[in-house]
Specification:
244 residues, alpha/beta, Rossmann fold, 2 domains, six-stranded parallel sheet, elongated, binds NADP nicotinamide-adenine-dinucleotide phosphate
């Protein structure tokens, strides 16, 4: 049995750790992060060359099952995985951690895209904490506000004219997030609904500080693709068991 995990998330790493060494597992990373945390088992890095390239890779490497454990906002690779799995006739599962749910006292504004998030900033204050990653920064380039941009690797222009970059990667602590909001006098937080525990403390810190949060909604999982909510559930699926 050879399981291909499309990764780049903490859940994908946890899943590889659950499957290795019980079964052969290869984790695939896009290669966006300069110094990624590597999962257990085999690792390959870089794009496949679209759905056809992925289907070829699956066939050539004797892959029996594919688990799409990419970030909920990595839309293209999820679509490619659905196409490739159908072409190569291998079962596909999407591992998607549940999204965040607002709690009492939260002031959330939903946005359907980064563009909508940029538009939603109007009237919410001049100091923005942007945690949507370095890739979509161009969308905010014309915004007049001051931005604190937190990302794993340094972002490249175009980006807002008034930007301070904070290079860091989760997990983040509640105390750290409180301090960050205070020190930078943040008026509004922008986040994707990644649902990750490692980055959730910013939401509680924002609630406590009365800071509104613009939450970018997730794109849907490709039609017809089965989903699992946890690495344990996905590992059980890969091993053909009802539970791990
Ligand atoms: P994307 O837009 O869905 O994918 C763009 C292209 O990158 C794909 O067509 C594919 O190239 C390649 N790719 C993406 N994930 C890959 C993987 N796991 N293995 C091999 N190739 C991959 O993806 P993205 O939003 O740029 O995200 C890239 C990676 O970063 C993902 O693996 C994701 O899990 C991780 N990540 C993304 C976010 C986010 O907010 N989007 C946040 C944290 C981590 P080919 O067509 O050439 O195969």
């Amino acid at each position: 049995m050879h399981v291909l995990i499309l990764g780049g998330t903490a859940e994908a790493r946890a899943l590889a750790g659950l499957l290795h060494p019980h079964t052969r597992v290869t984790s695939s990373l896009a290669g966006r992060v300069a110094n990624p945390r590597l999962p257990e088992g085999e690792v390959r890095i870089g794009g496949f060359g679209g759905p056809d390239g992925l289907a070829r890779w699956i066939a050539e490497h004797g892959v029996d099952r594919v688990i799409d454990a990419t970030h909920p906002f990595a839309e293209r690779i999820s679509f490619n995985a659905a196409r490739a799995a159908a072409t190569a006739h291998v079962p596909l599962l999407a591992l998607r951690r549940p999204g965040w749910v607002p709690a009492e006292g939260d002031d959330w504004r939903e946005a359907g895209s980064l563009e909508e998030a940029a538009a939603a900033l109007d009237g919410l204050g001049g100091r923005v904490f942007l945690t949507t990653g370095r890739m979509g920064l161009a969308v905010f380039a014309r915004c007049p506000q001051w931005f604190l941009v937190r990302s794993v690797d340094a972002p490249e222009p175009p980006m807002p004219a008034r930007t301070e970059v904070l290079l860091d990667r989760g997990p983040f602590t509640l105390e750290g997030e409180r301090e960050l909001l205070r020190r930078h006098r943040i008026d509004v937080l922008v986040t994707k609904d990644s649902g990750a525990a490692a980055t959730a403390p910013k939401l509680r810190a924002a609630r406590e500080a009365g800071v509104p949060v613009v939450v970018v909604r997730r794109p849907p999982v490709p039609q017809g693709v089965e989903t699992a909510a946890s690495p344990q559930e996905a590992a059980a699926w890969a091993l053909g068991r009802t539970e791990l």
